[in-house]
Amino acid sequence: MIELVPMNEQDFQKYFEFSVKNYADEKVKSGNWPQEGSLERSEIEFKRLLPDGINTADNYIFSAIEGKTSVGMIWIAKRKEDGINDIIWIYDIMVNPEERGKGYGYEIMKALETKTKELQQSTIKLHVFGHNAPAIALYKKMGYSVTNMIMEKKL
Questions:
Q1: Which residue has the higher pLDDT, 18 or 154?
Q2: Cβ neighbours of residue 35 closer than 8 Å, sequence gap 6 or more
Q3: For a 10 Å CB count at each end of the chain, is N or C smaller?
Q4: DSSP β-bridge partners for residue 15
């Protein structure tokens, strides 16, 4: 069973360094950003979202633990959208590469449902890159529905 525990500062620094680069790569891969300057743009975005790092108000960055082993992480935040206060936004979820294919993504998402209720929130939202077929399949399996879709055609 997965337990979500607050990430410590040392693990957060490793996560931050990895994720800034990974997010830049994903934005380039999806066609949203050019390669040039993508790393800088990503770092600016992360610092805007987490101005106080792991201690940023209404943000929760958890290590996903099974037993004594970290199998992944999830970063969520309380958000207010269109006057609605009870939204948890998933900014990032990751299963460690060596742990993929073992059902941990599903378990982390189920643990998040419990955590969302503990935080007295009732809605979970997320963004997923269109090229991330495994994640899309997981979210559909778990009952998430598409609320918006952006499409494009390169000429």
A1: 18
A2: 28
A3: C
A4: none
Rounded distance between C-alpha atoms, residue 27 and residue 42, angstroms: 9
6 secondary structure, DSSP code: E
Lookup: tokens for 47 = 């610092």
Tell me the per-residue pLDDT of 118-137, one tens digit each, with 9 for 90 and over: 999 999 999 998 888 999 99
Q: What is the DSSP string of 35-80?
A: STTHHHHHHHHHHHH-TTGGG-TTEEEEEEEETTEEEEEEEEEEEE
Q: Is the pLDDT of residue 43 over 90?
A: yes
Output the pLDDT for position 130: 86
Number of domains in the chain: 1
Rounded CA-CA distance 74/92 in Å is: 6
> Rounded CA gap, 106 and 115, in Å?
14
Inside any domain, residue 44: yes
Please report whether residue 154 resides in a domain: no
The predicted structure's pLDDT at residue 82: 74
Q: Which residue, 111, 48, 124, is CA-closest to 79?
A: 124
Does residue 85 fall inside a structural domain? yes
149 in any annotated domain: no
